[in-house]
Amino acid sequence: MLPRGRRLPALGAVAALALVSVASGAQGFTRTTWVPTNWTGVVAGAPVPGEGLPPAPVPPPLIPMAPGINPVITYEAQNTCDPTPKPGALRIDQIIKTTYGTNQYTWIPRGCDVGGTSEHKEGRAIDWMVSVRDPQQRANAEAFLNWLLGPDQTGRIHGHALQLGVMYIGWHDRMWRGYGIERGWQELKGCFGKVEPKYDNYCHRNHIHISLTRQGATGLDPTGVPIPGTPTAPPAPEAPLVEPELPARPPAPAQPGPDEDLFMAIGAQLGYQTVEQGPLQPGEVRTIELPPIPVNATSALVTVTTREAESKTGLRVGVIGKKSNAVTLRVPKAKVRTSLLAVPVSNGTLQIGAMKSPVQVRIDVLGYSVDYGIYPAVGSVATKLHRGRYEPNQVVVVKARGVGDVPRKKKKVTAVILRVTAKGRGQEGRFAAYPVGGADLGTTSAVIPAMGRKTSVVVADIGTQGQIALASSVKAKVRVEVVGYVRR
Fold first, then answer.
1. Domain map of the chain by residue range?
2. Which of 1, 103, 371, 455 is in the most buried spot, having the most CB atoms within 10 Å?
3. Is pLDDT larger for residue 427 or for residue 257?
């Protein structure tokens, strides 16, 4: 097991990894089938709206804030435990049940000893049990989110969310951040590759999660004025000619529990590079955001690539103010070197600091963990997994569990760390590794150059029967080696 801030065995000089390329999936829905997509983006409403859904009521508008009020939402993680439902969360519960019926299931508090960090433990988060797999429930969820994130009566986009103090929302494989509205809906914890029903709770496909700021939790709008009381229920739809028989109310679903997966593999996505700000200077410490990881992540598995150092130097990576939470990398003069690290992160950020020489730095994120003290990454001697020539869009399925030092038992391993060396044949492309039974995340996991060779490091969750899928978008010759794994 690899402690935080420790390195895996050296991987040699590898070229920088590639920028994420998000594929916008086609929307789709039938009354019996949920169709996953990889769409991310900015929209003032629900992500990936379903087609052919039944009608759903919309909450009445709140009395809007004054035009001159411009609320600023910031991230405020849970740091105390008082699960008593707060007025702001009760207000949202009231809106849901007034609009969609008192038979709606919602949950606010969570026990102090259950799981890790959660605003449920401060009574300022609410879960509404609605499923993307049920047409009426999905219609209700999307109508509510369109009301919450769409324009209010004055035309202010996201007006109701800002007024209610919505810090973030989790729904349908995605996350919306009130403290990062410009980012829109982004993938939630690697869920584009976790399409099986067993992940519905983890990926928020069976409920909407809403966390509020502490201001929002008070039930007061940003001016300190109480948000208006009970709304008027919207008009009921016309009754059908024949009143249908209503089934008995089903038993209450269980409260969504804390996330169970300790590690989320995301392939390989660009986190940060210094080329925009210029080389990191001696003595300089930069606090950098890593967009691929959520703010509640506690550690990340990253590759750090250094180049163009004017002399031999060192690079500190992690939480630099705490000696035990940072690691020092040796940086060679003028050469390219890539190291694989497990490092602590805080609020989606980490720190890098140069010692004796300016240096260019690139950081790619392979995965992350949430609320876990020791990062469960294990390095191993490189072992061949697969080698061969790939045709465009060819997929090869290989068994990953039991290869080299990777444990054979499912309960002991969740993902493999791969070194991919690709030789192009005239066209640039991407090489992906993803779990069998899951889905290709749509990321440029490993670059295939048009000519020559390029080596990258990626992480892939292990899927059904211990297998992973390897796929190339273009004709290429590829060697894949296992260089480590992630424990459960």
1. 6-21+262-486, 31-233+253-260
2. 455
3. 427
